[in-house]
Every structure is written in C-alpha cells, then in structure tokens.
Amino acid sequence: MTLLHDLAHCRAGDKGNLATLSVIPYDDELYPLLVREVTAERVREHLARFVDGEVVRYELPNLCALLFVCEHISDGGVTTSLALDTHGKTLSSRLLSLPLIGVR
C-alpha cells in the first residue's frame, strides 16, 4: 500500500485552534495524482480524532502543492492544549500516513 509520505512531504503551521498543512510532492509530475487522491474529505476523515471543524483545500498548481486549512483543532489548538497531538507539525506527520487508494 502506498502512503502519502511515499510521494510527498508536508509543511505545517498553527495559530490558536487553526492549523495549515501544505502537501508538496517530491516530484512535480505527482501533483495531479495528489489533487485526485488527497481531498478535503479524506483529510478530514483521516484527522478526525484531532480536527473538530471543517477542512478546506486550496490547490496551488504553480507551486505543485495543496494547502489544507483545518479549523477547530481538538482541545483548542496549540496555544491552549497541553497535548502535543494538536500541533501543526504533529498533524502534518499524521496526514502523511494517509493511504492513497488509487496508487500501487
């Protein structure tokens, strides 16, 4: 099974209870595959334990990247939670374990 981290890496940021997760393929030619496979719905489902709100995806084709804005991070996010799991860096690592269904 191919996982997202086999094809891409992440950058992350967080402010309050909002996290931004950027997914960047190792090879620009993989960008269309990521657009198809890494939807806002799949990211929301994959991070449901940590994200209580909406996940919005922005496509950045000139950068060959996807940006996910995750709202209402569990326990109030990085500034109010004592749990490390709500930090953007931890969420981005978790996102990279997403199985890519249409890829072998």
Features of the shown structure:
alpha+beta; 3 helices; about 100 residues; about 20% helix; Alpha-Beta Plaits
How would you describe this protein?
By secondary structure, the chain is an alpha+beta fold. It has a single domain (4-95), classed as Alpha-Beta Plaits, CATH 3.30.70. 21% of the residues lie in helices and 28% in strands. It is built from three helices and four strands. The protein has helices at 31-37, 40-46, 88-95, and strands at residues 8-15, 18-25, 55-60, 65-71. Strands 1-2-4-3 form a four-stranded antiparallel beta sheet, with helices on one face. Strand 3 and strand 4 form a beta hairpin. The longest helix has 8 residues, at 88-95. The chain is globular and about 35 Å long. The N and C termini lie close together (6 Å).
The CATH topology comes to: Alpha-Beta Plaits
Largest sheet, in brief, is: 4 strands, antiparallel
Compressed to H and E, one letter per element, the order equals EEHHEEH
Mean pLDDT: 86
**In what range is the share of β-strand residues?**
25-35%
Structural class per helix/strand content?
alpha+beta
- Please report the total strand number as a whole number: 4
Which outline best applies?
A: globular
For the biggest β-sheet, the strand order reads 1-2-4-3
Low-confidence stretches: none
The rounded Rg comes to 13 Å
| Percent in helix | 10-25%
CA distance, first residue to last residue: 6 Å
Précis, in short:
The chain is α+β, with helices and mostly antiparallel strands and 104 residues long.
